[in-house]
Each structure stands twice: as C-alpha cells, then as structure tokens.
C-alpha cells in the first residue's frame, strides 16, 4: 500500500495544553486519529511522526523522499513548528530529497508575531495550508493526494 508521511516538529507534542487559545484543545493523538481516518479514505497508509529534534525531522524527510523515489509514498504533510522559521537544514533536506511537501500550520502564522511570517519550508513546498486549525491536516492530506495523481 502507498504511504503518506505526516511529520510534526517541536512542541506539537504539547497540543491540547499549550496555548489552547491559539492551537485549540485537540491533542496530537487526536490529530493522528484524524489523519489516520483521512489517509484510510484516500487509500493510503499513514506514517505519523513527531520530534522536538531538528536532525530527526531531517532524517524523516530524507527517508520519505527515498520512499517517494521508490514509488512507495506520495510525500509528506509537514508541520515543522518553530523550525519553519529557522531551519535551512529542513529546506535543504526537502529540496535534496525531492520530497513533495504540503506545509501546514494550525494557526494563521501571518496574523501572529513578525518572526513567524518567514518560512524556510514554503519555497520548497508544493502547497501551504494555514489557519484552519487541526482540520488543516485533512486539507493538506487531500491536497497532497490530489497533486500525486
């Protein structure tokens, strides 16, 4: 079965308790279940991952890129958290692995602090979903699936 990766960066393990006025009360486990259901509807196997460590995210991006090249995966939905705004390494990994990525953010980062307006992921992403809460993950999975056809 073809797979899809959903990769989550730092502090997303705190969903449901960290700034619920911004991120809501849904937990990361709830997001995983939401993604698992949507992936199933799309006929995809889900690889749902989270790490607070930049190097681990880079490793997963490279792994997903290799699986796309092998025809086993359609790409990744990536919520890089704060690394979105700081990680040239993630930018280079996405580009180097030729990984189709949909960048997703729970909040509208453009309506927040100035430092959140710059993304190192966006220039190498196939699409971007921001501000739809956790439903953005579903939209990102649907978009990635559509682009892979």
How would you describe this structure to a colleague?
The chain has 149 residues and is of the alpha/beta class. It has one domain: Dehydroquinase, class II (Rossmann fold), CATH 3.40.50.9100. The chain is built from five helices and five strands; from the N terminus they run βααβαβαββα. It has helices at 20-23, 28-41, 54-69, 88-96, 135-148, and strands spanning 3-8, 45-50, 73-79, 101-105, 127-130. Strands 2-1-3-4-5 form a five-stranded parallel sheet, sandwiched between helices. The longest helix is centred in the middle third of the chain and has 16 residues, at 54-69. The chain is globular. It starts with a strand and ends with a helix. The model has no long low-confidence stretch (mean pLDDT 94).
Feature tags:
EC 4.2.1.10, 19% strand, 5 helices, aromatic amino acid biosynthesis, alpha/beta, five-stranded parallel sheet, DHquinase_II_sf, lyase
Quick recap of the structure?
It catalyses: 3-dehydroquinate = 3-dehydroshikimate + H2O. The chain is of the alpha/beta class and 149 residues long.
Task: Give the topology.
Layout: E1 3-8, H1 20-23, H2 28-41, E2 45-50, H3 54-69, E3 73-79, H4 88-96, E4 101-105, E5 127-130, H5 135-148
Parallel strand pairs: 1-2, 1-3, 3-4, 4-5
Helix pairs in contact: 2-5, 3-4
Described by strand count, sense and barrel closure, the largest sheet is: 5 strands, parallel
Number of domains: 1
Q: In percent terms, what proportion of residues is strand? A: 15-25%
Give the CA-based shape: globular
Name of the CATH homologous superfamily: Dehydroquinase, class II
Q: Radius of gyration, Cα only, in angstroms?
A: 14 Å
- Mean pLDDT equals 94
CATH architecture: 3-Layer(aba) Sandwich
- Count of β-strands: 5
Low-confidence stretches: none
Cα distance spanning the termini: 15 Å
As laid out across the biggest beta sheet, the strand order is 2-1-3-4-5
SSE-based structural type: alpha/beta
What is the overall number of helices?
A: 5
CATH names the topology as Rossmann fold
Helix percent reads 25-40%
CATH class, named Alpha Beta
What is the succession of H and E elements? Answer: EHHEHEHEEH
